[in-house]
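The following block was generated as part of the benchmark described in Methods. Ligand: magnesium ion.
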Amino acid sequence: MNFRMNMHGLRAIYLFEMARTWRTLFQSVVSPVVTTTLYFIVFGAAIGSRITEINGVTFAAFIIPGLIMLSVLTESVSNASFGIHLPRFTGTIYELLSAPVSSFEVVLGYVGAAATKSIVLGFIILATARIFVDYNIAHPMAMVCILVVTAVTFSLFGFIIGIWADNFEKLQFVPMLVITPLTFLGGSFYSIDMLPTFWRTLTLFNPVVYLISAFRWSFYGTADVPVGISIAMIVLFLAICIGIVWWIFRTGYRLKN
Amino acid sequence: MTVQNDGIRAGTADKSLNSEGESAVSVSKLSKVYAGGHAALTDIDLDIRKGEIFALLGPNGAGKTTLISIICGIVNPTSGRITACGDDVVRDYRKTRARIGLVPQELTTDAFETVWNTVSFSRGLFGKKPSPAIIERILRDLSLWDRKDSKIITLSGGMKRRVLIAKALSHEPEILFLDEPTAGVDVELRRGMWDMVRKLQKTGVTIILTTHYIEEAEEMADRIGVINGGRIVLVEDKTALMKKLGKKELRLNLHTTMPAIPAELSGHALALEDDGNTLVFTFDTTAERTGTTRLLADLDRLEIRFSDLDTRQSSLEDIFVSVVGQSS
Ligand SMILES: Nc1ncnc2c1ncn2[C@@H]1O[C@H](COP(=O)(O)OP(=O)(O)O)[C@@H](O)[C@H]1O
Ligand SMILES: [Mg+2]
């Protein structure tokens, strides 16, 4: 078998998915920016002024990495899951299944587009934050890497959800009832060191803790969990998601009868 | 249920086709059992010749869509092998799929896309570099050019069908599958569709269409394959098939209601319908003497008058009865 990629096919899928964003630009970009601004006003300015610094960082600055993660995770999952669920729902998936594209190209197109949106969104939030707080990024390269890997991992996760879900309720259920709580409880707005021992131990089962901890480390050089463990965990989630997607295409699960 | 006599024999007889011309699609020993345990296809053997229009004729639920879906890669086969222009559709899927275009049965479209974008997308997806000139030609041929910037959701059903055809043709396929292209389409549009299919054939495209209208198969196809209950019942040249199986009905609208068929007419194959208002005579178009002249003479002699008359081709069901009858 020859291993030439169908670059035109990949490009078509990617651009098609990106075009969907431009059509819903307001929903995709403006609303997360508004939400983030609200968080800064409420948590950063109003409440934050009464909270002492955490690990030598003002509260408003402390919450920036968590806020970015909150948006990147939810948007990755909902964009990628919606992107692949829609053609299944409308039936246009027939074209994808009958096209000379490999599963690798399909995933690259859908997940790549969802991840691109999330990454762009992450930077927009970062820029918005600048209006409210001054911050430094200690390890910019690591920050970008963690952002990219997280966006890709959770877009893959969203892709899986989009294939697993057989209706729109299930599709919305995961981002709303799984991702958002895990992110809030994952230390977006506090250091998990501030928790009593029992809750702190429990929190370590929350995968998002590792993401936020590593991401915050890239900003301020301090972390709740050792950076090495965080990175190992992120890579583990990525590997699990890749494994599940590989299985989906091998078996045709919910894609082919 | 496989027909075993003379020429109308599915599968095995087809093997000889290769001597007459290369096959565009070759299906051998294909079976499909859906997850629920339903055997949708059983032991299908079929050869489609390059350049022909092949009609796959069968009632709803016969397995037409399943067969097409497997060839195109949308449904996994349970067993069997398929090649397109000599390449295996599973192992060499990149090669084979680039040659195949599919117009699905359902009108599934991206509602909020424009016609131009959705057709260009298909071309890219199938691995061809962008070509506005080719897309323009296809849209003009299908009378979609002045709607190229319209969102698909604003189009009529007939136009949506043509958008799907444009998508299927966007990568200039050698083989085109049309799954029930005229189901629920009015007569005028149906004629337009047939004209378009003939034009395509002239450009060298092999066309496989499914239908449950015998008239459509008769009008369009070079060869017809009849499928029923997941099995290919017969594959025949159209002209030969129509001769072999062509029964016709002569329907006479009677001037006055007839309570029963008079004894004098008992020698003719007659039936009464519409509460005695229509007299139906069934005859074999291939017979040397159809018996119509004798019947009309007898009616005249008995002074049975009719206000109108009409002939009708035998229905698909009649063909099945005939085919199944011959095989037993
Ligand atoms: N996804 C499916 N799961 C289970 N059975 C199916 C599925 N799709 C079709 N069938 C069954 O397979 C048979 C053939 O269906 P189909 O290929 O759609 O027939 P046709 O296109 O000739 O009307 C039918 O009995 C149908 O109910
Ligand atoms: Mg069908």
